[in-house]
Amino acid sequence: MIREKHDLVIIGGGPAGLAAAVAAKEAGCDDIVLIERDRILGGILNQCIHDGFGLHRFKEALSGPEYAYRFIKKVRELQIPVMEKTIVLDLSKDKILRVSREGEIKEIEAKAVVLAMGCRERTRGALSIPGHRPAGVYTAGTVQNLVNLENIMPGKHVVILGSGDIGLIMARRMTLEGAKVEAVFEVLPYSSGLQRNIRQCLDDYGIPLYLSTTVIDIYGPNGRVEGVTVAQVDEKRRPIAGTERFVPCDTLLLSVGLIPENELTREAEVCINNITQGADVDDCCMTKTPGVFACGNVLHVHDLVDFVSMEAERAGRNAARYVAGELCEDGKEIAVKPGEGVRYVVPQRIKHGDNVSLAFRVTTPSRDKVIEVRDGDRVLKTRKETRLHPAEMVWVDMGEMDVSDISSLEVRVR
Fold first, then answer.
1. What mean pLDDT do residues 264-268 have?
2. Residue 119 parent element (H or E)
């Protein structure tokens, strides 16, 4: 078997992997390999032909491919080696990768690894929706790929379950392509997508959104979806008897959440957070396995790609520092915990205190709240927010922190 050694291996050539590679190279790490399983770089951005990307990072509205190209161009200018059409078969805790590429298998021994594999969609099987098993049931991302890249229309009469951003965007896209989107149904009492997508993709096209409502049966005895039965749900998400109704359709799109692609992470025996389903990391994006870093949607699902890039750049820079022996593994470490009104916080630990930035999501929609970052009874930072929503990630910049002066951190909303 062919065996290679590299200072830094980055797994995933989407927005996170691209940004991490560029940042690591610019930080002085010259021996980098970027591995991508697809035939081209860019990841999910290649099928996101709508605009709205880059508003934070580049101060302009770009399409997904345009945003990706900004980083792909930089990767090429910096002459960072890329292994496309390459699958990472396994990853050990000692940072040894076994990869398959064009009929050959090789081992790569790395000093540091950045995990940037992204996420996948939750499927019908994960929801256990009763009924027939006909054609015409798709995840929203699959339909986005079919329509935008393959020029294939999967159906003409569409029902969408879940108000995640991809589903909302595809409601508009399918309408523009001539399909009739009957409605979007959401089991939660609030939308799980960005408010701007509710306005631009549903309201502007007269597509109704029904909250606290879900699909309880799929009807398709002749091999193709012919309709779905929906019902309102109570506070425990149980269908309410007497609220059922049948909605005719030939296509059901599922936009019901994303799951970080952490199979390799688990193989490397990296500690996984129960809430985010991504790695437990410190303020340098390093996991509890020394030399293994994580960033982007494989760490926790983001709402904006601009934030993915920002986080990945942090991971890339610190991976380069680790390779150079500049990132100390010893010393005090403090825990970061979610408090009242907060679902999770990333990072989960602070060790180095360099330009600390905390990302978190709230548990429920709310208005006129105060965000607090506390060390016990001591308030370290406060910020007023007029509106908070679980679909929108919140960032709090803490700047330089003296870890020796802090017992633990708690982020709360009150």
1. 95
2. strand 119-121
CA proximity to 121, closest of 164, 183, 156: 164
User: Which of 80, 29, 23, 38 has its CA nearest to residue 323?
Assistant: 29
CA distance 127 to 143: 19
Mean pLDDT of 197-221: 97
End-to-end CA distance of the chain: 58
Q: Give residue 383's domain range.
A: 332-414
Asked if 39 and 84 touch (Cβ cutoff 8 Å), the reply is yes
We report the CATH number of the domain holding residue 160 as 3.50.50.60
Question: Taking a C-beta distance cutoff of 8 angstroms, is the pair 197, 171 a contact?
Answer: no
Structure token digits, residue 59? 């101060």
Confidence check: pLDDT of 83 > 80: yes
pTM score over 0.85 = yes
* pLDDT average, residue stretch 382-392: 96
Per the structure, the count of domains in the chain is 3
At residue 328, the 3 state secondary structure works out as: coil
C-alpha 26/C-alpha 78 separation (Å) is 8
Taking CA 113 as the corner, what is the angle to CA 111 and CA 118, rounded to the nearest 5 degrees?
A: 175
Do 182 and 72 share a structural domain? no
Query: Tokens 């002459």 sit at which residue?
Result: 79
Residue 330 pLDDT grade (very low, low, confident, very high; cuts 50, 70, 90): confident
Do both 210 and 324 map to the same domain?
Answer: no
Tokens at 104, concatenated: 């050959």
How does pLDDT run across 105-145, given as a tens digit for each residue? 999 999 999 999 999 999 999 899 999 999 999 999 999 99
The two three-digit tokens of residue 102, written as one number: 């064009």
Place of tokens 């959104």: 209
Angle, CA 39 vertex, CA 44 and CA 15 arms, to 5°: 35
DSSP per-residue codes, 330-362: -S--EEEEE-TTEEEEE-SEESS-SSEEEEEEE
Task: Determine the 3-state secondary structure of 211 from DSSP.
Answer: coil
Distance CA 346, CA 311 (A): 10
Fill in the amino acid letter for 394: V
Cβ atoms 73, 58 nearer than 8 A: no
CA distance 348 to 409: 9
Q: Are residues 35 and 51 in the same domain?
A: yes
DSSP 80-105: --EE-SEEEEEE-TTSEEEEEETTEE
Q: Give the separation between CA 33 and CA 341, rounded to whole angstroms.
A: 41
